[in-house]
Design brief:
XRE family transcriptional regulator
Length: 105
């Protein structure tokens, strides 16, 4: 689904990108970043299409989604000094004289 079609489905559902992202537990910026690709991942497209259809038929989808809960994903790459992506990094030993190997060839 193109991003424009996705926005049309959200409009039918009565949702903005921000409201959609909040409803499904995503960062609004992550959703709007798909505009640069021009395409929306299938799982988000399916959700938007289903929400639009439910809204057009008068089904209160907010109640059903709230039953799922609001457990958000843990952010990836929570970098701290000495860590990359949350994993402890080993200190690398640099070997001196690496440039000297070219003279041995």
């Amino acid at each position: 689904m193109t991003y424009d079609e996705f926005l049309a489905e959200l409009g039918k559902a009565g949702l903005s990108v921000r409201a959609f992202a909040k409803l499904i537990g995503m960062n609004p910026t992550s959703v709007s970043n798909y505009a640069s690709n021009g395409e929306v991942p299938r799982h988000l497209a399916v959700i938007a299409a289903l929400l639009a259809e439910m809204n057009l038929r008068g089904v209160a989808f907010q109640v059903a989604i709230e039953r799922v809960g609001s457990a958000r994903k843990k952010p990836r790459g929570s970098g701290r000094p000495g860590r990359f992506g949350g994993d402890r990094q080993e200190q690398l030993e640099l070997v001196s004289g690496l440039n000297d190997t070219s003279s041995q060839l």
